[in-house]
Design a protein that fits this description.
Strand content: 35-45%
Shape: globular
Structural class: alpha+beta
Order of helices and strands: HHEEEEEEEEEEEEHEH
Radius of gyration: 22 Å
Number of domains: 1
Length: 202
Amino acid sequence: MAWAEAGKWVAGAENAPLYAELLRDAAEAPQRNAGRRKVLKPADLPWEMSRQGLLKHLINEGLNTRMETVDAYMQIIPAGSRSGKHRHLAEECLYVLEGRGYDLHQDCDVEITDTYHWKPQEEVKRFDWEAGDVIYVPPNTIHQHFNADPHRPARLISAINRIYQQCGLNDLEQIEDAPEYDPSVVLDAEKVREYLRPRRAG
């Protein structure tokens, strides 16, 4: 034969229609996408009392929407409280809907070889924000959001790219839980209103 390595590469009897499956997936995409929602109503958006805090999910892979690449949620931080502290490989963007506060960010030195290693740097940076601001969280940065108003809640919209997760790098680590975190809490409109009520001075 023309190739000296033919004795090796011709070995194997396994057959699999992998390319055919790619073609089928592409052909079925229009019908599949037609069943995915383009508009979600407030009642369709699930609440979660998470370790990161009180969240209302806006876009998520589990919500059967047309969005393929981005996850987003609204985070409510009660008056004078804070979010959890976490770190993830993907960068994040947050829009401040209401309230005022600050972020603490701690960059990490990262090494990705056969294994993944990260080490927090010494410096912790503070960034103040208020309604209308956009907060940028760099990749692999330990971060936490603080509500500086002792009387009113803050609301943030978080958006993060799903690509790292799809590439097998869903490196999400919770370092500290939000003060409100309680896995036994079941959220509904009335329960959420309790977290939204302004606190009185004194």
